[in-house]
Amino acid sequence: MIERYALLAAASYVIGSIPFGLYAARRSLTKGPASSSANVAPLDLYRRSVSDRGFAGLAFALELAKGFVPALTGYLMLGTAGAVSGGSAALIGHNFPVFTRFQGSNSIAPLLGVLLAVYAIVVVILGMVWTAALAAWRYASLAALVMAVVSPLALAALDVGGSQENLVISASVLWSLLVFFAHRENIRTLLNGREPMVNATAGYNSGGASQSRRVR
User: Fold this and answer.
1) Looking at residue 58, what DSSP letter applies?
2) pTM
3) What are phi and psi of 211, to 5 degrees?
4) Which residue positions in the chain have pLDDT lower than 50?
5) How far apart are CA 106 and CA 190, in angstroms?
6) Nearest Cα to 63, choosing from 103, 83, 90, 81?
């Protein structure tokens, strides 16, 4: 049994480490420095691509899959505990990918993929939360952080996991912390007022101040 968990965790970590956003950026981005960075979220890719925004949709689908496939595989192999193990390993790989020298992406798509395998209705709820937060504040990174906070609360309210609910909720707290870690630079720019809004031109915030950060 331990060997199966170890194999699942190792394979899930490798899958989670694949930087689909970076690979898509190298094909589609024609301006800015994002194509040389591992931290390319699908939303960032969509907004900055001027040649083929379809790559952003493809990147999102692949990023979603690298969370969904390990979690679903773990569930089929070992039940709820397996889903948690596979999903957690994939998200750790996403944040600390071996293929890009452990420099991860702040894309939230893999988290949504894991949650889709654990309890699909939660993804619908979080999608509405993200949309409402984005409409209210116009910061994609802040919307992602709000979604991360709500995620464990939604899972707890829906009584996900049955007898293993505590395991699922504890894991979801870890997943949320990983989101905050991935957005640590965005948090700094939010606090000092330099985070660009979603309707701002890349390189500038809503007040027109010059930006060196990428739009998320």
Assistant:
1) H
2) 0.82
3) -125, 140
4) 31-37, 50-51, 200-216
5) 15
6) 90
Residues 210-213: contacts with CB within 8 Å, 24+ apart?
Answer: 213/185, 213/189
DSSP code, position 204: B
pLDDT at 191: 96
98 secondary structure, DSSP code: G
pLDDT computed for residue 194 by the predictor:
93
Q: Would you say 72 and 83 are in contact if contact means Cβ atoms under 8 Å apart? A: yes
Tell me phi and psi for residue 193, to 5 degrees.
80, 20
The DSSP secondary structure of 52-108, one letter per residue, reads -THHHHHHHHHHHHHHHHHHHHHHHHHSHHHHHHHHHHHHHHHHS-GGGTT------
Residue with tokens 């505990």: 81
Expressed in percent and rounded to 5, the helix, strand and coil fractions of the chain are 70, 0, 30
Q: What tens digit of pLDDT does each residue of 76-135 get?
A: 999 999 999 999 999 999 999 998 889 888 889 999 999 999 999 999 999 999 999 999
Dist CA 105 CA 108 (whole Å): 9
Which residue has tokens 């309890």? 119
The domain limits of the chain are: 2-191
At 1 the pLDDT is 83
CA 44-45-50 angle, to 5 degrees, is: 120
